[in-house]
Amino acid sequence: MTERIRRGRQAPSERTRVKRLGDRGAYDAETINAILDAGLLAHVGYVIDGAPYVTPTAHWREGDYVYWHGSSASRMLRSLEGGVAACIAVSHLDGLVLARSAFHHSLNYRSVMAFGLAEKVEDPAHKEAALRAFTDRIAPGRWDALRPVTAQELKATSVLRLKLDEASAKVRTGMPSDDEADIDWPVWAGILPLHVASGPATADAHVPGGMAVPANILGFRHG
Amino acid sequence: MTERIRRGRQAPSERTRVKRLGDRGAYDAETINAILDAGLLAHVGYVIDGAPYVTPTAHWREGDYVYWHGSSASRMLRSLEGGVAACIAVSHLDGLVLARSAFHHSLNYRSVMAFGLAEKVEDPAHKEAALRAFTDRIAPGRWDALRPVTAQELKATSVLRLKLDEASAKVRTGMPSDDEADIDWPVWAGILPLHVASGPATADAHVPGGMAVPANILGFRHG
User: Fold this and answer.
1) Which pLDDT does position B9 carry in this prediction?
2) CB spacing of B89 vs A202 below 8 angstroms
3) To the nearest whole angstrom, how far is the Cα of A198 from the nearest Cα of chain B?
4) Confidence bin at A10 (pLDDT 50/70/90)
5) Predicted local confidence at residue A5, as pLDDT
6) Residue A4 has pLDDT above 80, yes or no
7) Which one, of B89, B85, B77, B167, lies nearest residue B122 by Cα?
8) What does the pLDDT read at residue A81?
């Protein structure tokens, strides 16, 4: 095996136990938090009238909670704020794994799946602190540079969170795992790493000509 | 408004109608297919015992169907192959939108959400053709260069598909949409584009030293 596997403690529940290729599973907060913090885009699953819905949304983490937000009028948020079950997934695609057989082709990735009841953040001070954390996760210090948030804007924004006490990570890294008998098959095999790159930052038409792109934006990293 | 909006025909169903910021919605096959084809990683939502699950998985498209696959032992595939309801989401994060107020911060993105009943591909010839299409979507012509697939491998692989007759796209592009009153607020505003970059391709230890990385792998594009 040429894969590097991260191992954690036991799964916190049966449904979070990584069943397929279980040696790719991890359950420690360090691994889970790192995967959540490296990304901006989660997929939130929920059920309406028995049917599954998956909505992409920006997320951030503070302590043992993953947060997301949106318009108070959003279907997803209104469905979830009543404390119904949610599943939130955050995934990073790290590369193509090109083997000598189609069967052993794979992807390198890091993903987290967390289950729980979404909880609406009602307290305005908590809500504002959470939105500050989200803004400053994107560009540290930016919140204080912005036109201050208004009470009406806070009211129009719903903030939800889910406690990370039923979460698992799944990680694949490294080279293909070909069958021994295929090792000499005459085809190129290996990995094509993928990563998220940024830039160039582009100011809108109202930014004064002499204003440089701030370092906290140029320093943004994803993945 | 500085956003460029793509408009399509009407939503195919009430639940696919983009409700929040409806002018970001599109329902035409050209837009939907382009977003699906630009990606490799979908998030599939399904329901087990009333609870939502979201599983990241590789996907590909052929005609009016989106396909995915995995081990015949997979919980997700076994849950879905009985023809239960699924929701599949494919999302591309295209950039940060940095406005003068926190409220108008946003992300540029392209996403597709499709609902339907997952259908298991049972016919071995169809299954093999689908897997060939997937492999060749990653690297055109690679299927024929590989050690041929075996009957056992085909049997161990489940292929599912979902017809794209209840799908919608949501796209945001362009600059922030600040309030008029904020236009002169002294903070940088604009976009930080994000994209998926690849490389360098790295051969595994069994590739002969003189074998170059094939052009069909170097040509891989995502997003």
Assistant:
1) 58
2) no
3) 4
4) confident
5) 35
6) no
7) B77
8) 80
Question: pLDDT tens for residues B51-64?
Answer: 999 999 999 999 99
How high does pLDDT run on average in chain A? 92
Residue B3 lies in a domain: no
3-state secondary structure A32-44: HHHHHHCCCEEEE
The residue range of the domain holding A154 is 14-218
Q: Is residue A82 part of a domain?
A: yes
Return phi, psi of residue A144, to 5°: -70, -15
From chain A, pick out residues whose CB is under 8 angstroms from the CB of B85: 50-52
Domain count, chain B: 1
| Alpha-carbon gap, residue A107 to A171, rounded angstroms | 10
pLDDT reading at B77 higher than 50: yes
Q: Which of A15, A70, A93 comes nearest B41 by C-beta?
A: A93
Kindly state whether residue A50 falls inside one of the protein's structural domains.
yes
CATH of the domain at A163: 2.30.110.10
The answer to whether position B4 is within a domain reads: no
CA distance A181 to chain B (A): 10
Give the residue from chain B lying closest to A182, CA to CA: B147
Q: In sequence order, which residues have a C-beta less than 8 Å from that of residue A124 and are 6 or more positions away?
A: A151, A154
